[in-house]
Amino acid sequence: EGTVEDTLSLTGKLTVCGSGRIRGKIQYGSLQTEEGAKLVGEITTDWDRAAGEPKVSSRLEAFNSGVNMSSDKGALDA
Questions:
Q1: Is 17 within a domain?
Q2: How do residues 28-69 score in pLDDT, each as one tens digit?
Q3: What's phi and psi for 54, nearest 5 deg?
Q4: C-alpha dist (Å) from residue 67 to 31, 72, 74
Q5: Using alpha carbons only, how large is the chain's radius of gyration in Å?
Q6: What is the reported pLDDT for 55?
Q7: DSSP assignment, residue 20?
Q8: CA dist 35 to 16, 20, 32, 66, 77, Å?
Q9: Which end of the chain is more exposed for a tag (fewer CB within 10 A), N or C?
Q10: 5 falls in which pLDDT band (50, 70, 90)?
Q11: 66 assigned to some structural domain
């Protein structure tokens, strides 16, 4: 709740309630916002501290390799 207009830097989880407003330079480890929360400014995260590497979905892997995942007309073909 409330409003912050300043630089905000933390390595942990930033939680912004629905009535929360943050304006400024914002750096966080992870982010949770409720519907209605507002963030304005330069917003960054530290990817090196983020939990694990991003996972590649099987559909993206199939697209990259040209494998047909379904029999739909929009299916991927080699």
A1: yes
A2: 988 999 999 999 999 998 766 555 555 667 776 777 676 555
A3: -60, 140
A4: 35, 13, 12
A5: 19
A6: 65
A7: -
A8: 9, 10, 10, 38, 40
A9: C
A10: very high
A11: no
Query: Is the CB of residue 10 less than 8 Å from the CB of residue 28?
Result: yes
Q: One-letter amino acid identity for 69? A: M
Give residue 68's pLDDT.
56
The count of domains in the chain is 1
Q: What is the largest CA-CA distance in the chain?
A: 54
Q: CA–CA separation, 32 vs 14, rounded Å?
A: 6
Residues 2/21, Cβ–Cβ less than 8 Å: yes
Nearest-angstrom CA–CA distance, 60 and 68: 11
What are the CB-based long-range contacts (under 8 Å, 24+) for 50-56?
none
When pLDDT is averaged across residues 1-16 and rounded to a whole number, the result is 89
DSSP 75: -
Q: Is a pLDDT exceeding 90 seen at residue 24?
A: yes
Domain that holds residue 22: 1-47
